[in-house]
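Hey, I'm writing a tutorial for new members on how sequence and structure tokens pair up, and I'd like a real worked example in the thread rather than a made-up one. If someone can provide the structure for the chain below, I'll link this post from the tutorial.
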Amino acid sequence: MKLIFVKIFINIIFLLFVLTSYSQDINEKNQLALQYFNNKEYEKAESIFLDLYNSQKNKTYFAYYLRCLKEQNKFEEAEKIIKKEIRKNENNLTYYVDLGYFYKIQDKISDSEDSYSNAIKLLQPNNNQITNLANAFLTYGEFNYAEQTYLKGRKLLKDVYGFNFELANIYQAQHLWAQMINEYLDLLDLHESYIQTVQNRLQNSVYTDKENNLTEVLKTQLIKRIQKEPDKTIFSELLIWLYLQERKYEGAYIQSIALDKRLKEDGSRIMELARQAADNKNYDVALKSYKYVSDKGNENAWFNDATSGYMSVLYTKITEKPGVQYNEIVELENQLQNTLNELGTKKTTFNLIKALANIKALYLNKTEESTTLLENTIKANLLSPLQVAECKLLLGDILLYNSDPWGATVYYAQVEKAFDNEPIGHEAKFKKAKLAYYTGDFLWAQAQLDVLKASTSKLIANDAFSLSLFISSNLTTDSTSVPLRMYSKSELLIYQKKDSEAISVIDSIITKYKTNEISANCYYTKGEILLKKGNYTGAVLLFDSAATNYTYSLIADNAIFQIASIYDYYIIDKAKAMEYYQKIINNYSNSTLVNFSRQRFRILRGDKIPDEEMIYLDSQPF
């Protein structure tokens, strides 16, 4: 028995050895043939590829063999061997395509068409045969014959498989958008479960469509189908998706509302639309969306989130708007207070509590009311530790606003100690460092900022780096640091909403230290004050002075970017905005604003940018 096992083992080892040797031989021949082919030694490559094909029956080797014959103009030899293979492989219709191709390159068009047509006539209801034949046509760029193959395959297989994706690919390659879209929509008409796959494929097509025709064709076809089959909600779903891809939130809103009503939904799709619109700073659509859900009533599951979301977006829209009016702030305060009274003080309404405290203290000068609100919120023991920390940071901000830097430091220090290695702790440390900067303790501030450069919070790390660099640059250029002290004082005055006093200090710096680099920051800061008041023309002039008169300054790229942003978002002059974004790209290649500027330039030019490639600034342009 042992002897039998030994013999079997030896036979297995021998077989493995033979197979390995054979495999190595095939591999060596393959590499040699490819080497000859790449070196254009087609005659040498030809015989090896033919030998490999005969031994392996691999169509790839046959294709290389035919290419060698073509390069040597051996057309008769090619025709002869192809016809031989057709006789030997009657079910492999791809050889008819090879033959048709060789007829075509000899201008035997009639023979070529006959060979191609014969292949399609001989098709059987076999998925693999259909696919292989279509791929053979595509190999030679014969899109029409590949299309005919799939269309006949659809008839042969009937309801089994319709080749919609394959036909869509053929139409896409030829930019036949209407036909491509029709295939996808026909597929969804039968199988709605393919929606994600169709969206992915359409998205890829949208961003490779340089003529910008596809989206309009898709939109037109979807609207027609929605009108024809109003009960087929899948087409409405796809139209909403398209509007969101184009960031046309108004269109998405109209379709989403219609779908929500038709399906008697709870507003969840509208909530998602509101979130996306708010993230992309389309506050009007976000507000309408939240209000629609809120109006469903307090029995709706989304009522609290929608009501809270509405007020959060309204707060952001009003406080970010240049030239905001006093009566708008007062009305916002009333709305926030009424909403809080309705929803109550709790973790989920904390953003509204912070917004109300900010409005009271930093816009309406009701610092006592704001402080009381925050202190009572902390005492209620309804918040998470992180939310309590945010309350304390805001209390510190209010004390700084009221010219009590030492009291502010106490709150900042408490948060820093409690959350030492967390983002909010780093934020507290940064606030302490900036407070030291405001009060003229530059060396201590810089030491704290240098530690924060390694913060896990990108925003804090960037802000710390910028302020540290600004301090070091201005301490170096003027050992007495008088201009820097004056400028930091002006920044504190701006924070305290004392713009007139701040401008007076800034003008003094410009008068006394006109050649000092810090004057660039002075022009820039005055520009920010005018921008905040909605004086766009005056702001542009000041930003231009900062950039053109102090091209070497650290603030020059920011000043150019501000001008571009004003033309982009407020004056709405596309050509001017593109001109200034281009200046950032061309003249400030090391600026952190280059990538965003390039993105805005492309968007204004009409390019489509996928969501995954979108870049967002850590804060508003202004």
